[in-house]
Structures are given as structure tokens and as C-alpha cells.
């Protein structure tokens, strides 16, 4: 293992090996280039001679089935070649899913619905990306569902969403985010509102099922679902609920035998539960790194990553915005109106009075036309961030991907904040 390398390094990789590297230092750039042979980054093939530029926070594995030579230019914090990887096992999963797709194609049924579970930092998102990339490379059009509200890869933190994957992920930027289906949750962990989380997961499953019905190619290709790393107690119940809601065919359990055994015990036999080891390359992230990754997700939503975006900033009158949050405090059952459960309060739309309390918060712009619609279960068009609140003039300023006016004025307040430092 080499530490603190500058300049250029060349690596000759044998078949079935991977080069792992990390870029930690701010403002540092590392360029990767495939010189000879074939290689892929999390399932996306590298183009020979093309320079891929990675910046701070990148943790990358360049894997080769056939052997290759790659070059890294710039200062990596860690770079080493690993001979032991679980890629063969991951490829077997892909092959099994592909067989199910072939059967689905023949019988005009639906393809595999696969959920990836495991504790934090075991490579769940990476395995999803790999399986999706292998599927699109075979000409499939799978749906990617991300239920990880903290470190998800669709839209911004505090949401759950689905994406039709039509091309392999970009080596540096991940999957293209064209027209994702996104629901507002508003917190960075499901534990903040379990009733709402389950409601949104059920809703997302319903909408995905409808979309598969309408699109044969997607239906045959199936769904790959990423989940949160909260796997104990309440978190475990969320996983079994999601498995039921999506009617999964297979659950891939990364790294934790205890979780695997619990699922084998509790999940009906027709669902395949498969244990898979985690890759030694998956990097554990500290709390600070997780916060940074969340911030980065929001920053990229507004400002783009490699391809820069130029967001707009404009004022919104308090009187123009219809602001809500989801979930009121739970009252004792004796205080609830007849026929309502105490839990119902957790999924209720509650009006929010604008004020300094909005500062730095993210707001989801709902597709719902009116608060009388089912706003909670309606997907969102996008997000704005409140960068200033003027109490005197009764306005707030938002950072928005689109110019004025807001496409809709039903706005949902998120717990998650973003400090715009641009
Ligand atoms: P979370 O609990 O936050 O949801 P996770 O289990 O989904 O995490 P990933 O996000 O897939 O884990 O992986 C964590 C980090 O490790 C990512 O930055 C990813 O790029 C990196 N990583 C994954 N696999 C490898 C590998 N084989 N070599 C090097 N880095 C890797």
C-alpha cells in the first residue's frame, strides 16, 4: 500500500484484480486512464485513452476480468492492487437475475425484484450500481429504487425515489438523473418518522409496479432496491416491510450473517435470501464524512458536479407559498378524533408559518396542485433551498434549479439543511 503519492503511477493488473484508490485532500484531482486491456469501475467499462477525473471524497475500484494497465495522475491518499475480491460472486448474482429476465421475457411476466441489504458501509449502493450496470450492458432497462434516505443516490438526502436506468452509470458522476420519481420524506434517517417512511415505501412500490405494467422492457428487467444501513430492531422491520411492499424475489445480504439468518427465518420461502461477503475495498465512513457526503449530494443537485449547473436565486412572498411539513406530534389515543389512530398524526400534512425557522432548510416542490390533494403521497418536482428570510418584508429567498416563478407553490419543509457557500 502506498501513501501520499503525487505524480504519475502505472499499475499492471492481472485478471480478476482491482486497483483501489481514494482521493481525500480538498482541491486535489486524480486522473485515471486505461492504457491497455479492459477494465471497469463499478460495472461501467472504461474507454481506453479517456481521462477520468476524480476529486476529493472519491473512493474508487478499477476492476479487470481480463487484465489491464492503468495510470493514475495526481495525489492519491491510498492506492493499492487487491487480488481478493467478491466480484465472481456478484457476477453470479447478475447471472441468476439474467436467467430470471430471460424466463420473464419468454412467459411475458415480470423480471427479478432484488433488494440489497446490510449494515452501514458494506457496499450496498456499489452492488446495486454493479448489478444495474451489468443489466443495462445486456440491453436491459431495470429500475433502480433507492430507499436510503441518508446516503441515497437518487435526488437529494431526505427522499426516496426510483429511476429507470437506460445507460451505464457515468464513471465519475454515477447514474444520470433524468426524470426520477421522488417522494419527500424530510429526514436523514427513517427512525425520525417510521410511519411516514413505510407509507412512502408502499406508495413507491405501487407506482413502480404500475410503471412496470406499462413498460415491457422495464417489466422484464425488474428492479434493484438499495436500502438503509439500519438493520437492527426497528430498522429490520422496515426492511421486511419493504420486501413485502415490493414483493421482492431475492434479498442479497451483505456481510452480516445475523441479518441473513433473521431474514431466512422471517421471509417466506419463495424469496431467495443470499448471503454475500463485502468487498475488502469498501471504505468505512466517519460521521463527518457522512455529513459531507450528504452536503455534497445537495451541492451537486444545485451546482452540478463535473458539468456545472447555474442555479437561480429569487424571492418568494410568504403569502405566495403554501408551506407544509409532514407529521404532527402524536397525541394520546384519547385525544384523537373518533376513528383515527394516534399514528395517523405522523403522516398528516401540517401547515407551517414562514419565518426565520426556514433559514437554510430544503423545501420540496410538490406536484400536488392543492393541499386538498394527497400531498404526502404525491411525488415532488424538485427542491429549493432557503438562503435568506426577510421578516420585515415577509419574503424568503430561495436557491432554485429553475428561474422564477416556482413551478408550484405547495412546498414541503425538510429537516435537512444546506449552507450555500457559493
Ligand atoms: P451506506 O451504509 O452509507 O449506505 P453502503 O453500504 O451503500 O453505505 P457504498 O456506498 O456502496 O456502501 O460504499 C462505501 C464507499 O466505498 C463508497 O465511497 C464506494 O465508492 C467505496 N467502495 C465500494 N466498493 C469499493 C471497492 N471495491 N474498492 C474501493 N472502494 C470501494
Automatic annotation (TrEMBL):
InterPro entries: Clp1, Clp1/Grc3, Clp1_C, Clp1_C_sf, Clp1_N, Clp1_N_sf, CLP1_P, P-loop_NTPase. It comes from the Eukaryota. GO terms for biological process: mRNA 3'-end processing; tRNA splicing, via endonucleolytic cleavage and ligation. Its main location: nucleus. One of its GO terms (molecular function) is ATP binding. The keyword Nucleotide-binding applies. Signal peptide: none annotated. This is Protein CLP1 homolog. The gene is LOC107269014.
